[in-house]
Design goal:
Number of domains: 1
CATH topology: Rossmann fold
CATH class: Alpha Beta
Radius of gyration: 18 Å
Helix content: 25-40%
Distance between the termini: 33 Å
Number of helices: 8
Shape: globular
Number of strands: 7
CATH superfamily: Vaccinia Virus protein VP39
């Protein structure tokens, strides 16, 4: 897959319709989003009037299934794109529970701390610049309520050496070659314009603009330094293939590192696949 030329057609990041088309055309991405929402809804089964927060919520793809859960008292979504939020408002205008959608930065927008039962982060971490990733994760830790969990759905690149620009570019290409192959296998008639949208996302990463994906080892290091620990981890795509031992799409459930062992045990028990 080329990372230049026609991949630059259209500004995907400003077009919510293009975003939804690209995401819904990717089995790898939809599997990740679906499983993240599955875990979120499971976690809400024994909660009443739950407070749910979705950071970098985009068009609301990441909370479509969560919004209908009877335990949801309030669902707040934050995103920096007015176009994406306008699209989301139209999409959910007939829902009995209306999401509160806030235009703002996921790292700095004021939010009540120690409040949230579920904090959703679907492709949020890789839309935060590398220099702010640690602040973002530390903020998540401070937002979680006493029994709250963070759900991170994330694209993880094959391993590369930090600072190795060529190695980083190869990891992006390997990842998105596999994404395209999966999409084509699912739909042999995948339209060319959809392929171009997927290529455009890869180009953002290659250019260091809008997309800031990292490897598994870097992600784990950021989590540790932020004071978060993983209590459940599932790689939903690929089951095998060319993206290396640690590359792929994951869903992680995280809690503050000082969370009590009995709480962690209950989370692991309740959030089974």
């Amino acid at each position: 897959m080329a990372l230049t030329g026609s991949a630059k057609s259209g500004e995907y990041k400003d077009l919510p319709e293009a975003y939804e088309l690209e995401e819904r055309s990717r089995p790898d991405e939809m599997a990740m989003l679906s499983f993240a929402q599955h875990l979120a809804t499971q976690s809400l089964n024994d909660v009443s009037s739950a407070a749910v927060l979705d950071l970098c919520c985009g068009t609301g793809l990441s909370f479509e299934e969560v919004l209908d859960h009877p335990s949801v008292g309030v669902l707040v979504g934050i995103d920096i794109s007015p176009q994406y939020l306008a699209f989301a408002r139209n999409k959910f205008e007939t829902k009995s529970v209306q999401p509160m959608l806030i235009l703002g930065d996921a790292v700095t927008t004021p939010l009540p701390p120690f409040t949230w039962d579920v904090v959703m982060m679907a492709s949020a971490y890789h839309h935060i610049e590398d220099s702010r990733k640690l602040a973002f994760l530390r903020r998540v830790r401070a937002l979680l309520g006493t029994h709250g969990i963070g759900i991170i759905a994330e694209n993880i690149l094959p391993e590369y050496s930090p600072g190795d620009r060529d190695g980083y570019a190869r990891s992006i290409k390997t990842f998105y070659d596999a994404v395209l192959e999966t999409a084509r296998s699912s739909n042999p008639y995948l339209p060319r314009h959809v392929e171009m949208l997927i290529q455009r996302v890869a180009q953002y990463g290659y250019d260091g603009e809008y997309e800031y994906k990292v490897s598994y080892s870097i992600f784990l290091d950021d989590l540790s330094r932020a004071g978060l620990r993983i209590v459940q981890e599932v790689r939903v795509w690929p089951l095998s293939g060319p993206v290396g031992a640690d590359g792929g799409n994951y869903v992680f459930v995280v809690v503050p590192d000082q969370a009590e062992d009995d709480r962690v045990h209950l989370i692991k028990k309740d959030l089974s696949p």
